[in-house]
Amino acid sequence: MLRAAVSVAALAAVLGNPPQAIAQTPSTERAPAAQPAKPLPGQILVQDTNTILAKGDLIGQTVYAPDKAKIGSISDLILTKDGRSVEGFVIGVGGFLGLGEKSVAMKIHRLTMASGADGTMQLTMDAKKEELTNTPTFKSKADQEAEKAAEQRAREAPAQRPTPNAN
User: Fold this and answer.
1) Angstrom distance (rounded) from CA 61 to CA 49
2) Over residues 13-31, mean pLDDT
3) What b/e sequence results for 27-57 when a residue is b if at least 16 CB atoms lie within 10 Å of its CB, and e otherwise?
4) Total of domains in the chain
5) Could you give phi then psi for residue 115, rounded to 5 degrees?
């Protein structure tokens, strides 16, 4: 069995210092105590009760219809280009256990956020799952670029014709 405790004398012997030098090092020679941290201008130290955290309070949360039926879960937020406001949200609808699900984006004003009886965030919107399931799928910029690249590759690829056997 190994022992984790090491005496000051043993440590000093390994380091080549006499035990008295380690044991009697004045506190003025030790590392200085950390100075209290000062916040930067614009830094938020404590979350305000009138704010939410996207990852914890919105993304991944279930959204319900007015009749309390589950619509889907928020998968992303759409921010303005300057990042100063939330333009909309992306919700996954349809499918089963994530298979066959499609993304639908909606303006943020369509989402109602309220505090439930147990203090958790309750998200509802003024649409039903069936309505969202029958709408076009949301395409992000990355999705659009991937589609364009695939179309470009298809146009540039030479037609694949079988070559005759030279036998």
Assistant:
1) 19
2) 52
3) eeeeeeeeeeeeeeeeeeeeeeeeeeeeeeb
4) 1
5) -90, 125
Cβ atoms of residues 133 and 71 within 8 Å? no
Position 159 in a domain: no
Residue 111 lies in a domain: yes
Distance, in Å, from the CA atom of 124 to the CA atom of 59, rounded to the nearest integer, reads 14
**Secondary structure (3-state) at 35:** coil
Listed in sequence order, the residues at least 6 apart from 123 whose beta carbon sits closer than 8 Å to its beta carbon are: 58, 61, 62, 63, 64, 74, 111, 112, 113
pLDDT tens readout for residues 145-167: 999 999 998 888 765 656 666 55
Does an H or E element contain 140, and which? Answer: none
Mean pLDDT of all residues in 133-139: 92
Rounded Cα distance between 149 and 14, Å, is 64
